[in-house]
Structures are given as C-alpha cells and as structure tokens.
C-alpha cells in the first residue's frame, strides 16, 4: 500500500476528541480508580485477609497497584537470575540484587525501569522463596507469578479477574477493572509528587513536548517519590502495612480491632 487507509479517519475528523472520550468513559462507568480516602483501604484490607488463601493472586494484585504497572506487565515478569544474557535483553524481569524492575517493550514501545521500594522488596523476596520451595515445574520457575495450572499455555498467572471481583464484593466496591489499579496509582501519585515524576513512574511519553527531556527526574528523586507513594497506599490498610513493613524503620500502625474480629 502506498498510504495508510486509516488516514481518512483523521482527514474527515472521525476520531473523538479528548473531551468526547472522557464524556463517554463517564457515561459507561469505565474508569473507577480507588480513593485513598475510603475504597483503597477497604480493597487492601480484604486483599490482606485473602493472602492466606490465594497468595499468588493477591501478591500479583498488590505488586500491580504498588508499581502502577499494566496487568500484562506484572504478569510477565521473570527472575533476572533465571534468564540467560540473551533473554535478559528481550524479557521483563525483577532484579532483586540491584533493586530494579525492568519492563521490556511496553505499550509505548520502549523499555521501562522502576526501583524496588521497601514493601515491594518484601513481597518479591517472599515470592522468590515461595517459588523455590514449592513443587513448581522447572520451566515455570523463571516466572515471578507462575501459572497455577499445569495446562497453562503461557506459563504465568493470568486469571486475576475473578479474584478482583471477589475482593470488590467483600469490600463493598461496585466496579473495578484491572486497569483501575494503575489509575489508582496515578491518582495517589498526582497528590504526592510532581507531574514530571508521575509521567516517569507511569511511563507516559509526549513526543510533541520538547521541554520534557529537560524535566526528566533523576533516579534518586524517582525512588523517593515511589517510596512515598507505596507508604501512602499501604497506610490506608494498617494490617497490610504492618505485615510488610513494621520494623524499627517503619513503626507499626494501630490496627482496627473490629476488622480483625
């Protein structure tokens, strides 16, 4: 073909504007991020209670919301030490030794790195122990979240929808899509750090903005912001916060005794 036939849509202005899209999303109830004031805490509290029954699925949801990653980005993570040097160049992985999560070839067609903050590090260390200690087939041990079914074609965990629905039902949350976990991260981040850092954490790009490269935050600033976001989210659920972080560095929070009973 000498040209892209879809160009006619742009010429005839058939694409919806940003405001039209937003109106459509509101009408359909598509976007439903959790609120740090109420629903986020309820969601994390129920998730914490279910970790004992479905550790794999709950850890997957927890890592997704704490990193702001897309659902497939979290699902396809491998352990860095389980990969060959050739595989490392084309695979998303967790490098606990250097405290880095690297997402390969994301939606924006680039690689994206995030630092591993303290609670995320605890989750991942526990996950590595679980994967190594359980009877998982050797070819699945490279995955951070290996599939529960031996018949899985992809090899990694991919059935979080029903778990998310159960958590929402118990937490009294009407509707929540998997991408709403990423939107929740963005909502919390927006209230705690700068616009440039939020864009960096969510791996959003604006190729038409020539000043973007001058506002690129350094690694230390990104880590500090992500650690603050992680703490802010976990503090909405004291029980989960205490499980993951309570220490001399992070004094335990008073827990709701009524919820525990």
From TrEMBL:
InterPro entries: DNA_brk_join_enz, Integrase-like_cat_sf, Integrase_catalytic. Signal peptide: none annotated. The keyword S-adenosyl-L-methionine does not apply. Residues 92-220 form the Tyr recombinase domain. SUPFAM superfamilies: DNA breaking-rejoining enzymes. GO terms for molecular function: DNA binding. Keywords: DNA recombination. The keyword Transmembrane helix does not apply. It holds the Pfam family Phage_integrase. GO terms for biological process: DNA integration; DNA recombination. This is Phage integrase family protein.
């Amino acid at each position: 073909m000498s040209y892209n036939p879809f160009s006619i849509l742009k010429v005839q202005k058939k694409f919806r504007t940003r405001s039209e899209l937003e109106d459509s999303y509101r009408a359909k109830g598509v976007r439903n991020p959790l609120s740090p004031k109420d629903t986020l805490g309820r969601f994390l509290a129920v998730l914490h209670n279910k970790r004992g029954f479905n550790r794999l699925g709950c850890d997957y949801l927890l890592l997704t919301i704490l990193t702001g990653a897309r659902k497939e980005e979290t699902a396809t993570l491998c352990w860095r030490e389980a990969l060959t040097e050739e595989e490392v160049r084309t695979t998303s992985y967790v490098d606990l030794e250097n405290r880095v999560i690297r997402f390969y070839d994301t939606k924006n067609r680039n690689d994206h790195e995030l630092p591993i903050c303290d609670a995320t590090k605890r989750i991942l260390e526990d996950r590595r122990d679980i994967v190594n200690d359980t009877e998982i087939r050797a070819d699945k041990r490279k995955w951070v979240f290996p599939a529960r079914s031996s018949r899985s074609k992809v090899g990694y965990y991919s059935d979080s929808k029903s778990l998310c629905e159960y958590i929402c039902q118990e937490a009294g949350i009407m509707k929540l899509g998997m991408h709403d976990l990423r939107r929740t991260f963005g909502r919390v981040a927006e209230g705690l750090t700068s616009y440039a850092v939020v864009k960096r954490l969510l791996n959003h790009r604006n190729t038409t903005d020539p000043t973007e490269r001058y506002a690129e935050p350094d690694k230390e600033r990104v880590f500090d912001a992500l650690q603050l976001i992680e703490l802010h989210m976990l503090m909405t659920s004291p029980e989960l916060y205490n499980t993951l972080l309570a220490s001399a560095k992070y004094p335990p929070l008073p827990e709701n005794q009524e919820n525990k009973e």
